[in-house]
């Protein structure tokens, strides 16, 4: 059996052996930064520029990095290289854990670079606005983006493993992240209470609590509790994917 470091190096080489991960990383970085630049340019009397506002585009980058997580898995199923990897490493879970670790590390690094670049661009465009990171909440809203990207990519890999088809997995993720949680929140009566336990809502509480996200105050956990819950859901979903992949045909 391959050693863990060898597995990680193998997955790193496989991930960056095609152009799609490079494009995903580039787009995942560029989209939020461009959004921050446009927001800063248009800000004024009717559009307030604040530290959390510089991060409003993070969801676009997160969506692109989730596509990277899906493609990293489904691409191998599509071209049959996953079967070869499972033949070389009989413990399939080890292959997928290594792949998840590499994808999560890349996504987290891109997310962190994106967050500070978005903030930096806004500072350059509007030097007259005080965007200094003065409070723990402001630091969390910027430095925490990388952690959200990291756990979001774990969810994406898990969904890719379970679905094994690129279009299907991406559709499920996009419908859920862009539509499902908002619809749940709009359900009269129970909706606002249920949405607190939706993973991406919890990630928003982590990033935006105390910074204008009024609904975060009614969540039964604090910002760091939101991150723990989001990460717990991601790891639980990955655990389900690992169990499934051990029991079904490659």
TrEMBL record:
Tell me yes or no: is Cell membrane among this UniProt entry's keywords.
no
**Keyword Lyase found:** no
Q: What sections of the protein cross the membrane?
A: 21-40, 60-79, 100-122, 142-163, 170-195, 227-245
This protein's UniProt keywords: Membrane, Transmembrane, Transmembrane helix
**Entry protein name:** ABC transporter permease
Q: Please give the organism.
A: Gandjariella thermophila
């Amino acid at each position: 059996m391959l050693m863990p470091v060898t597995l990680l190096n193998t997955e790193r080489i496989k991930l960056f052996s095609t152009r799609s991960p490079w494009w995903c990383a580039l787009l995942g970085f560029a989209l939020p930064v461009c959004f921050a630049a446009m927001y800063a340019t248009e800000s004024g009397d009717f559009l307030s520029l604040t530290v959390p506002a510089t991060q409003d585009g993070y969801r676009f980058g997160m969506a692109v990095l989730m596509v990277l997580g899906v493609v990293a898995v489904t691409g191998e199923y599509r071209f049959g290289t996953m079967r070869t990897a499972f033949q070389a490493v009989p413990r399939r879970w080890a292959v997928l854990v290594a792949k998840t670790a590499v994808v999560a590390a890349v996504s987290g690094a891109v997310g962190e670079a994106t967050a500070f670049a978005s903030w930096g661009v806004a500072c350059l465009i509007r030097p007259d606005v005080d965007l200094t990171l003065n409070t723990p909440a402001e630091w969390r809203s910027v430095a925490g983006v990388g952690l959200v990207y990291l756990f979001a990519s774990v969810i994406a890999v898990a969904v890719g493993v379970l679905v094994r088809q690129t279009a299907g997995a991406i559709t499920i993720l996009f419908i859920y992240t862009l539509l499902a949680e908002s619809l749940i929140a709009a359900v009269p009566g129970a909706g606002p209470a249920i949405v607190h336990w939706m993973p991406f809502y919890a990630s928003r509480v982590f990033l935006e609590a105390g910074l204008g996200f009024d609904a975060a105050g009614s969540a039964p956990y604090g910002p760091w509790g939101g991150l723990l819950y989001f990460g717990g859901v991601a790891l639980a979903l990955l655990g389900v994917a690992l169990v499934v992949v051990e029991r079904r045909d490659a």
